[in-house]
Amino acid sequence: MTPAFLRVVIAPDGLSAWLEGGLGRPAKPAELKDLLAKLIRQAGLVSGLRAEAIKEAFRRLAQGEALARHFIALGRPPQPGQDGRVQYHVNLGQRLVGRVFESGHMDFRDRGDLPVVQEGQKLATLIEPVPGQPGLSVRGKPIEPAKPARVTLKAGKNTSREGQDVVARKEGLVVEVQPGRLAVLDLLKLPEVGFESGNVTFPGLVSAGGGVREGFKVKAEALVAGTLENNAEVEVDESVRVQTGIMGARVQAGASVSAQLVRKSHISAQGDVIVGSEIVDSTIIAGGRVRLTSPGGRIVGSRIEALMGVETTNLLSAPRSPTHIVLGKAKPDGGEALKVEPGRAGLTVRGEAQAGLTIEGLKSRLVLERSESSFTAREMKRVDPKTGLERWVVAILDASGSRPKDSPG
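Now predict its structure.
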């Protein structure tokens, strides 16, 4: 049976409007003309009206037909702008922290070239985003386009920002020490830091293919090394890239740190800490993210403090070797606590999270993608009795939803 109603429906995005329903009977032209004009006026349709579609609706309704999503107005969608980008004028090879693919996997063997540049050479240019064009709804209201993404281009050591360009201020090796920050460094290339070289202090990039041996120290702008052994100490202003493992070492970096694995070590970084396979019995303090890139990556018996969040496949914790995750409260050694914007830190666990694990941090996004292990997460607000400040604790519980006996906190 033909429905005895007729209405105008406007899409939620305001970019289209249609008629649906019918009168349930044939209608006289004058009656139908007044009715359609009234419906269009009441709906506030003033833009994008389709004359031929309205005539077709008039014809069908006059014959007593019903309409289903018969479009009579189409707005003008907003035109997207162009995201900002950095145009590089030199072949940077790979970033000092290594190549990270879109899948999240890192190729620790791909070091790339570190090209030499001359004083005054233009290294990169910041291309500002181009705003899009507003659209127009069927009610005549502008629809703003999405804001294009902005990128940053910063001058690091021995470079300067001149307008939209970053320019080398001396001859040396150009590296991207962090995304969007270029530096020109001197290079000291050693087989290893050990008994032959002694402790190393160098105002540039130290490359030690054999690694930093047990008990030796490096203080430099940046470090690329094969491995960091037990009791090795590294302090750099920029990034540290380790081809294999950081094994019982202490690392302090002004930017990012990357390694294939970390065991029994203490790492403090202002940027990201990117690890291939595992973090075991270690303390990681990061001003950015802590990310495990391997599909089987795991954090075991460690304390992780990360301002921007943690990404891993497995979180493993035991009574004698607990894992504690602190989100959004990173405090690099010797520095003041970093300011936090609510909702920026987050935890993503793609596989297994053992019971007894405590996660402390912001009330923000928490993604637990269960596969083999069964667990739940509960977020609780607590008030510090001394300061009166609120904090949020996310506790991983067992399958029954109760806190295990060995669970901290």
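Residues 184-397 form one domain.
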